[in-house]
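REQUEST ID: PR-0412
SUBMITTED BY: lab tech R.K.
PRIORITY: routine
TASK: structure prediction, single protein chain
INPUT:
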Amino acid sequence: MMLANVDVQEYLPFLIPLIILQFVLLFIALRHILTHNSYKRGSRTMWLIITLVGMEFIGPILYFALGKEDE
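STATUS: complete
OUTPUT:
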């Protein structure tokens, strides 16, 4: 079976904004986790692990949806 020859440069206009958004979400989530002491569910250690392991959007989004304490 032959793999299709994919030209990465063709997809760069779509990938670059997604990569930037991914790192912005990760940075904001990590900063919030490290500067706040209370969470809806779980602990600081749990949210750090989830955010770092699920770095590709899922971890930070889970934190903002389920862990961030309403202020």
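NOTES: The CA atoms of residues 10 and 16 lie 11 Å apart.
REVIEWED BY: pending
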